[in-house]
């Protein structure tokens, strides 16, 4: 069960991470990275960010690049939320493949018709 504080911090981190990724991906044409969900642990020390990457074929490659630069992203995030949070949580990034899953179900349903 997520507390109200966890939910507020999750939304704040999602908004700010989305802005960071929007700025970074504006330089690389043809790739869109969006933050679909952020979950924060009850002690607020770890945040799991679920990323949706378009096109999905580049997802693994982009995720590896993001995980490699996680410390830099955390620093940028800390600069943006320094007045709202005392300590910025550690970040871990995961690929959100729910859109691929939905697309696969749709294709299976169309095949049945």
Describe the 3D structure.
The chain is an alpha+beta fold and 113 residues long. The chain has a 3-stranded mixed sheet. A hairpin with a 5-residue loop joins strand 1 and strand 2. It is globular. Helix 1 (4-25) packs across helix 3. The chain has helices spanning 4-25, 59-68, 70-80, 98-112; strands at residues 32-40, 46-54, 90-95. Helix content is 51%, strand content 21%. The longest helix is centred in the first third of the chain and has 22 residues, at 4-25. The protein is built from 4 helices and 3 strands.
Given helix and strand content, the structural type is alpha+beta
Number of strands: 3
Radius of gyration: 16 Å
Largest sheet: 3 strands, mixed
End-to-end C-alpha gap: 40 Å
Name the average pLDDT: 88
Detail the poorly predicted runs: none
Please write the string of helix (H) and strand (E) elements.
HEEHHEH
Number of contiguous helices: 4
Strand order of the largest sheet: 1-2-3
Taken from the alpha-carbon principal axes, the silhouette is globular
Helix content: 40-55%
Give the percentage of residues in beta strands: 15-25%
Task: Give a summary of the structure in a few sentences.
The chain is of the alpha+beta class and 113 residues long. Helices cover 51% and strands 21% of the residues.
């Amino acid at each position: 069960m997520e507390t109200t504080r966890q939910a507020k911090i999750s939304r704040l981190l999602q908004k700010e991470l989305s802005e960071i990724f929007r700025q970074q991906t504006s330089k690389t044409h043809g790739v869109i990275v969006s933050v679909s969900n952020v979950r924060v642990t009850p002690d607020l020390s770890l945040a799991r960010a679920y990323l949706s990457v378009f096109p999905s074929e580049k997802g693994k490659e982009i995720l590896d690049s993001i995980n490699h630069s996680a410390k830099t992203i955390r620093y940028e995030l800390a600069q943006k939320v320094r007045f709202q949070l005392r300590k910025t949580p550690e970040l871990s990034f995961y690929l959100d493949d729910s859109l691929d899953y939905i697309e696969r179900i749709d294709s299976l349903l169309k095949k049945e018709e």
